Each structure stands twice: as C-alpha cells, then as structure tokens.
C-alpha cells in the first residue's frame, strides 16, 4: 500500500494529457516573462548606474518642458511595441492551449459524478445500465489512457476539484453543474485537494486518484459493485451488530445491510481505500479507532460526532470494518 | 471614543459565547442520561447550546438530516405535532424536549437515544425551541439555502408557551 | 448666457495690479457648474446611478436564470406605480420654478415653490407606501421578490432623504439666516431632485413592465 | 539643508507678516477636547487618517505573522482552524479595506490641496465625517474580532459559505457592515478630492499643468465613484439575505452563488487598481525630483492612467476562470487582462527613460521606488500568467496567487507608499527621516519580502492551495513554508525599524526647510510643516514645475480675506479665477453624525428596525451640521457680491 508521500500533487510533473498541455504553456510563458523581467531590471539598473550623480541642490534640467524629446520617444515606442508583441504571443499561447484542452478525445469515457460536501468527496460512477452504478468516497480509481468526464456538483458550499498532476481545477458550485475532462497517461496515485475555501476543514479535504491499467480498473469496479461480504468470524459479525445498533446507521451506507443513510461517506468497500477522513489519514486499525472515537480531535468542526463505545464493541466494529474489502 | 469601545465590549460579551465554534465537541449540557428518566422533567436543565448560534444551526442540520421534517414538516406539523406553536404536550423546557427526543413519546415519536449522539440531541433541542421563537434573534438560525419554508427562525416572534395535558397513550385523536 | 461664457468674463474681471492678481471684487457665490456644490451633487448622482444600474443588471441577471418570471404568480399592480410616476414627473415643474426663482435671487418665489415642492413630496411618499403593498410579493418569497423590493427600497431611500433635505432647506428659507449661498443650495437641490425623478423612470419600467414581458 | 532660492523667501517665510498671523488664527483648529473632535483642517484630519490607517497596517501585519507562524511547520497546532479562519480573513479585510485604499486617500487629502495651491479641501466637514466613519468601522471590526465574532469566510466572503446557513451567528454580518463603513468613507473622500482638484486649483494651473500625482488621484477618485457601489450593493444584498431572509444568493429560490462573485469582483478588480494608481503618482513625483528633471512624456503618462482606469472595469471575470462560465467569454477576459499591461508598461518605460536621461540623487525615497521596478514588474508578469484561462486553472486559489497578489500589492503600493513617507515626511513634520536607518529599513524590507513571497510561487506550483490552516508533513512543503515565515519575520523587523526611525526623527531629526529635496511642485514652496492656511498668498502658476521654472507675472493673488476661511474657486479647464467662496467653520456635528451613523449601522446588524429608529438621530445630526450660524452669515452677507 503506497503511503501518501509518493503521491504526486505537482503541476510541473504532468501525468495527464490536460496537465501536459498546461505544462507546455507554463514553460513558454515562464521563458518569455523571465526574459521581459530581466530586460526591464537590467534597463533600470543601466539607466540608474550610467546617469551622473546629483544632490538636492543640483539645478533641475527643464529643457524637456520646452520641446519634445524625439530620441527618448522613439525608444519608448519600440519598447511598447515589443511589449504588445509579447502580449500577443501570450494570448496566442493561451488560445491554442485552450483549444488543445477542449479537444481531448472523449470516446468511451468513464463517467463519474462528484459531489462536494463539507469536507469530503462523494463519487458516483455512472453507467448506462443503472444497476452497474456504484458509489465510493474520497478516492477515485480511473483507467490509464481512457478519458474521464467528472460531473461536478456541490451539496453545500463552493468547493473546487484540483488534481494538479492530471488537470486544472474546476469549481463545484451549488445550483450549477460543471464538468471536468481529464485523462491519466501514467499509472500512479495522484493527490488533489479542495482549492476553494469552504469552511473549517478546507485544509483537510483531500482526494486521491489511482490511475491503474484498464484490466485492474475493471476488476476494481466489479468488486465495488458487489454488496458488502457477509462477515465470517464472530468478532466481525458482532461488529456488524454494533454498527447497526449505534449511531453509524444514521449517516453511513453499507449496501447489503439495513444501513442506507447518505449523510456520510459510503462505507461498503471502506477497506479497499488507502486513506480515511477525506484522504488525510492512512486506513489502518489505529487511525480508524482514533477517528471513530473522537473525530473532532483530528478534524475539529467536522460533522461526524464522537462515539463513546465500550472498548470490546469498538474492537468488534473495527474487525467488521476491516472485512469491507 | 474609549467609552464607546468599553461599552461595546461589555454589551457584546455575549458575542464570545454566541460565536464559539468547536475546538473539541463540548460535553453534553447536562447529565440527564439513562432510560429511567421520568417522562416529565422536574429539574429545569439548562441547555448551554441555546447561547451558541453555531450549535443551533447544527441542530437545524440534524433536524433535516435525521428526517424530523418527515413527520413534523418544517415545524408546522404533519403526522407529528406542530413544533412552532405555543402548545406543548410534554413540556417546552429543554429537559422535557430532550426526554421526548431521546426516549420517544406515545403515538409514534421514536426513541433516538443511542442512535443520535447526545450532544446532537441537545443541539436538536436548542433548534426545536428556536422554531417557536424561544431563542433571541441573534442566535436563532436565519433562512436555509433551500426552498423557503416561511419566516426564518430568527424572525419569528416568541410564542407564549401554554402547557397542554398529554393525551392518553393509544387514544385516537 | 451659457456657463462657459460666464467663466471667461469672470477670469478677465481679475485685475492685474503689477505682480498681483486682485480678486477682491469677484462674486462670492455662483450657480451651475461654477459652484463646487454642483460637482459634489454630480458625484453623488454618479454613485447612485451606478447603484441603480447594478441593481437593474442584477434584476435581469436573476431573470435570465429563472425558468418562470415573475416567480410569484402576479406582477405588480400598475395603479399606484403609474400614479407615482405621474406625480414625480409633475413635481419637476415646481422644482424648475424654484430653481429659476433661486437664480433670480427672488426669496418670495423660492419660498412659494419650495412649499409646493414639499406638498408634492408628501404626495409621492404617501403613494409610495401603497406601491409597496401593490408589489404582490414579499421580499423573502423568492429572488424576484428580493430584487424588486431592493430596487423599490433603494429608490424610496432617495425619496425620503431628498424630501428631508428639501424640508430642511424650505424651513431655512423661511426662518433664515439667509445668504447668497442658500440660493445655490436651492438650485442644486432641484438638480438632485431631477436625478431622483429621472432615475425613477427606468426603475419603474423594470419593476412594473419587466415582469410583464 | 534648505535650498537658497530667492523665490522661496517670498512665500515660504510667513512668520513675520501680520497677514500670516491672521491666516493662522483663521485656519487653525479650535482648542480643547470638543475642539479636537471639531477639527476640520485638511492637514489635521489627514494626519489622523494616516496614523489610523498605519495602525491598521500594523495590526494586519501582526495577523500576517500569526499566519506565517502557523504555517511555518506542517501539522502545527499554534492556532486551530476556527481562529486561523478568523485571522486570515481579518488580515485580508484589514489590509484591503482598512489600509490600502484609505491610506492613499489619507495621503491625498494632505498633499492635493498643497500641490494645487489651495488653502483647503472643497468639503472640509465631509472630509472629517468620512474619517470618523472609517475609524468607527475599523474599531467595530476589531471589537468584533476581539469578541470571537471576527469574520471567518475570507476577505471576499464567497456565498454560500458566507450565507445565512453556513455562517451562523453575526461574524459575516460584521464583515459586511465593515464594507458599508469603509466604502461610504471612500466614496465621500472621492467626491471631496474630485471637487477639490477640479474647482480649487490655483489660477493658471490648467489641466495640462497639474502635477502627475494630482492626475493619479483624480483618476482614482473617478474610479471609486463607479467601483465601490458594486460592493455596497453586494454586501447589502448579503446582509438582507442573512437577516431578513431575501434570496439573492439562494440557488433553490432563484438566486445564484455566482451573482455575488460578479458583483464583488466588478468592484474587486477596480479596487486593486484604486490601490495601484495613487502609487503611480508617488513614483512620478519621486522620480522627477530625484532624477532632477521632469518626467518623460506627460501626456503619455496621463493617457496611461486613464486607460488603466477604463480597462480595470473590464477584467473582473479573471477571478472566476475556475467556475463553469462559458469558455469563449473567459477568453475575452484573458485578452482584456493582457491589454491592461500595456499602459503600465508605457509608464515604466517613461520612468526608466526619465532616470536614464536625468542626474540621480540616491536617497531612500528613490530606493523604495526602484524596488517597484523589481517587485511590481515580477508581480505584473505573474499576473499575465494568471490572465491565461488554461494556466489559471492550475494556478488559481493556490499559493502562486498569494505570491502574485503580494508582489503587486506590496511592490506596487506599499513600497512606493514607504517611499512617499520618506519623501513627504519632512513636509508633514518639518524633520528629515534618517538616511542610514532608511537604507537599513529598505534593504531589510526588500530582502525580507522576496525571501517571504518568492518561495510561494513554487509552493503554488507544487499544489499547495490557498487559505489552509495546516498541511500534511509528507507533502514536502514544510521547508519552503519555513523560509517564507523567516522572510515574514524580516519584514516585521524592517517595519519596526521604520517606526523607530519615525519616533527618533520626531524628537531630534534633522530640521528640513521648505524644500529639502529641491523639488518642483507647489507643496515645496511653503514652510514645513505648512501653516494652517497653507499659502500666505495663493500663487499664480505658469508651468508644470513652478519651482523649477522661471517666475512670471503675476506671481500671486491678492484680495482674499485673512479673517474668514475664504478660498478662490477657479474654472475646471484653465483654472481662471471664477469666484471666492467661504468654507464652513469647524464643527462637532460631523463627528456626532458619524457616531449616529455608526449606531444605525451596528444596530441594523441585530435588528432591521434599527434602520428606522436609527435614521432619526442621523437626520437630526446632519441637519445641525448643515444649519448655518447666524453670526457667521451676517458677516458674510455684509461682504457678499452676487454673480
């Protein structure tokens, strides 16, 4: 299980077609702007360095008030023309890049509907056949090489989906629907974060995108479509009783059980995810226990309440949650 | 100029309490737990959440999230009784409402103790009291980003509470 | 004589006495664009017309997003709004008279017409109260109600402040102390009144007819 | 070190003549506590305004240090998320609304009358009222912040987070009401400045002889008139949404979340140019004086200012490139955002040409201006990067934007502002700020700034979003954040050095005569600090740099009363004398009207009825403010001349 450190959240190391286009534009713009910056700074230094020194008593030279200074004017004219030419180059670069971004081929794209909540992501993999649709949270798995159309909707405030290694960001705005088209060209795990300030835990609202070969994607999707497995050993079965008896069922869904609430993330395949709490903590028994016991300690202000379970119930619940592959 | 600032501080000290967000979830307002609690509260438990605007707005979130509006509508009443009027069958004080939510009432009010965590029940209690204008307008929630259900709680005038004897369990009204 | 022509003559009035420019005998108050008060009022007019323009743009922005407009069932009744428009347009007449009287420094004329102006302001403030009732929507019913109440509310604020300004000025013209500058104030007040009336015309069209087309 | 120039003696030294003593009595502020609150002399109000805005600058700076302390290390827990959200919102709101725009107007209310040869601003009482309203707005916001009710939805408070459902309590209401205070003050200052510049110029100062700084303030003030109403409408709609349940921003009832962004940024982008254009005026004044020659291309500079002003209204959607607006529309705003770089480029080329063809007097004001060429140019170029839609989708709302905005705001406004303080401090106080301390202050500021904000470009590209109270350790952002925090500490040291320099100079700095820098504009023709009535005799202007050009006949104006606050009103285009006007006397009523307005505004946060019963005291106070005093009127009628 790769730890989050190797995740790439870097706009300069593109792993997707869209980020690559923008990366090219970035390199060109950076070069042009650096040249212009150096030119102006050098011009200023030369102008100030070569001019003779003076002090407050030096008689001011007011010759320019009588007649226009043609020589200086010609230089300023050329400099302005060069500036305008540079701006046109930038404009052209932007227009061509936008066209390239818009022309991403979308044949047999994966259709994901992403809903932003206050401080986690709900993802629903759509399909022509509704029975093949499934819901997951905070982590997306996408096939390498196949385009992905992400339909963005917000359920409360404005969020913004930004996975720098794959593509630019797009806002999720309540009352509006946006779409983001991207494609992963290299396998790997790419990390993204909410980029529009959305309240107390805006900083800890991350999203992992696993780009996997198409065959692995199909296997993963097939597994996601299955309801939760029946727990075999006694501890897991007791854990399920605890889950269904306490407040977990008020917010979470585990398909295959009576828990069907959609306030919190879908936990049907919780154990198949690398992280918990919107990509913030590794998904192991220790963090899970700490999170269930007192989520406010890890993410103050989050809507999940503290659960004061007796220790053996908690251990049983953890055992059950770990069976939800 | 200084007097204005001092006055502002003193008058607005309530502001600190009103605006407090959770560093950690504050412990439940009072120790009223356990099923053996009598149906009509004797002790007037004081719900600290009623001075905290953030907690009352959380109560409004749970009211919709746990489908209280399924029976009580937006407080106007449907299958369940209206919550925004002055008639209270089981007591209008926080402790009685806590008991109603936690341990249920005859004629269909389910018991949520164990399902809904305790501090969320206290937030619901604070919100339910704001439905009938019991809370000051600076604390009661304003409108939601949803279809408008009449006046926001902050703009409602305070209902004069008239206790109503509980109907006999099982009696068809 | 047009204002620019006046300026040129005034400039020549300043007598040159050797190294100095003597302005001791020049007038101590002036009407129209010559007076700083005109520029202050025009600044205010620029600000408020921008607020009105942006609110009208908000109206059409929200309307472009709505599937059905007006979102409440009925558009505003035309009676009170149209009546008020007539009263407001008519109120420009006493204002013009007051402005002319002020520029003639005719105190009796100013007093008469300012009182007539005050009667008009009472009339349209009263009618405006009925207009709010005839909007057929509450401010908190939907976005349509909100923007219509905002438009009418903003204009009403101007009616109230303008009525109060004119009342204070009218009382001052009767009780004194009076000086030349007060006539300039009457003239500028009339100018601001024109703005309040003329800015009502597009708002009237938007509130009353915007919901009908 | 005063410049021995015969022409100064004639105006500069009023001490001995009787007329000057009469003028001093006429224009000075009334004594006593009530007198302190009744003062309307433009220099008194302006000094208070400058001190108040600098206090807010220091408060904003402390908040910035708190932010950098929290972000110095990953997973730090120095301040929790709730306090951090309040701190960064207060930092943004303080710097943008309580410091940047008002300080430019504060400096202008001091300098504009002096530079155009006038004895006062056009509406002195309105100027005092605007100052009081601004101060009370700032006090209200910080009182709310100290009572844990500081705004926490960001300095541009996007709806629906700042809406009634997701911002319970009164926090965002205090923010929205602070907008009402500061924009009301800004709009009134704009009216005062426009009327002063157009109607009170000294005879002979036609529009093409006005100093470039006065042009910059005129352009800025006109922009204020058309920009600020947008945010007043937006914040009023937000307050009604939050308090009385209107639905401007409620998507479920016909409202729209992007309506707020359109209205706010239609004001927001012109606002950053309101902050940027006055410093262009500072730079023109400083470059001319320290290059010992007039600025190259006077008409080009003015056209550039006006073009920037118009274009500024046409590019607000580049703040909304990440939303789902149509792509073609966004490309139009990309083009507009690129074109606005041209007028600024022309100005920079003109200044470089002026420096190149002049003789350089290396003093601290010029150092701060030279920093502009380094920092603002880099900020402008990163701005061009953000202007492109596709690049912006990677850079928007990341730390790259934090770096860009600080480069343009500090490089474009704060550095020239410090240069302006060093340049005009002798005129304000009569003492020269110490050069050695000034250089230390400059270099610490320059180095600290670049160390603090350049790494943020890289952090932004590495995917660090904006406004995060912490970040995981394994993201690799810790080191650059630590460097940025050290840079911020260096800036703090340099600002402390500036305060020390000011404090030391006030007590025993070198005495500066009327014209320590040998400058060319009118404010250097009067004593430092100027007498209460500014000019003993109002000068007649014959050129763009009156003190540099040979004197011509007539030299000054006579016939103005020294016993009454009389000013000469001149025509707009050619500044020919038009008529004399008496300005109002000092009065307590502007302060009381501001107090009544504050009660109305703060009351309306808690109940809408406050607008009704609150407007009665405001109406009464305004009427007393307007009502003429019988004794003064009788005196005026005696010497009245009809048009």
Strand order of the largest sheet of chain A: 3-2-1-5-8
Question: What is the first-to-last residue Cα distance of chain A?
Answer: 14 Å
- Radius of gyration based on Cα positions of chain C: 21 Å
Poorly predicted parts of chain A: 1-5
**Helical residue percent band of chain C:** over 70%
N-to-C span of chain C: 46 Å
Strand percentage of chain C: under 5%
Report helical residue fraction of chain A. 25-40%
- Radius of gyration of chain A, Cα only, in angstroms? 28 Å
**SSE string of chain C:** HEEHHHHHH
Structural class label of chain A: alpha+beta
Overall shape of chain C: it is: elongated
- Helix-strand makeup class of chain C: mainly alpha
Oligomer: heterotetramer
Shape of chain A: elongated
Write the layout of secondary structure elements.
The complex is a heterotetramer of chains A (325), B (173), C (213) and D (643).
Chain A: H1 17-50, H2 63-66, H3 70-102, E1 110-117, E2 120-125, E3 134-137, E4 139-143, E5 147-154, E6 159-162, E7 170-172, E8 178-183, E9 188-194, E10 206-212, H4 214-225, H5 234-245, H6 248-251, E11 275-276, E12 281-282, H7 285-293, H8 295-298, H9 311-321
Parallel strand pairs in A: 1-5, 4-10
Antiparallel strand pairs in A: 1-2, 2-3, 5-8, 6-7, 6-9, 9-10, 11-12
Chain B: H1 2-11, H2 14-19, H3 53-65, H4 69-72, E1 87-88, H5 94-103, H6 118-131, E2 162-163
Parallel strand pairs in B: 1-2
Helix pairs in contact in B: 3-6, 5-6
Chain C: H1 3-13, E1 15-17, E2 20-22, H2 36-65, H3 78-90, H4 92-103, H5 107-133, H6 143-175, H7 180-209
Antiparallel strand pairs in C: 1-2
Helix pairs in contact in C: 2-6, 2-7, 3-5, 3-7, 4-5, 4-7, 5-6, 6-7
